[in-house]
Amino acid sequence: MINFQYVRANNAKSAIAAAAKDKNSKFIAGGTNLIDLMKRGVSSPEKLIDINLVPLKQIQMIKDVIYIGSMATNADVADHQLIKSHLPALGMALNAGASPQLRNVA
Description:
Layout: E1 5-8, H1 12-20, E2 25-28, H2 32-39, E3 47-50, E4 59-62, E5 65-68, H3 74-79, H4 81-86, H5 88-96, H6 100-103
Parallel strand pairs: 1-3, 2-3
Antiparallel strand pairs: 4-5
């Protein structure tokens, strides 16, 4: 059994503060890769900081640069009007790269 502390952050400031208190902490969102690494003993963080509630899904253009939030799913990105109009190849690649079920969570 792997023991760790679980913390749920509601905003970026609280997530960063939680990580600053423990150098052996990891952020977790979907967790698929991290959980596998923990099961194999490759990674053993003392604290997992859940960032699912942190508002990081925005997709926006600022001065001709498109910014994609780290919590935006592949489906969010592929279906966004900015991506469709400015980066259509990215949207097509995301739609071709995984099943709809996976695109909605990854």
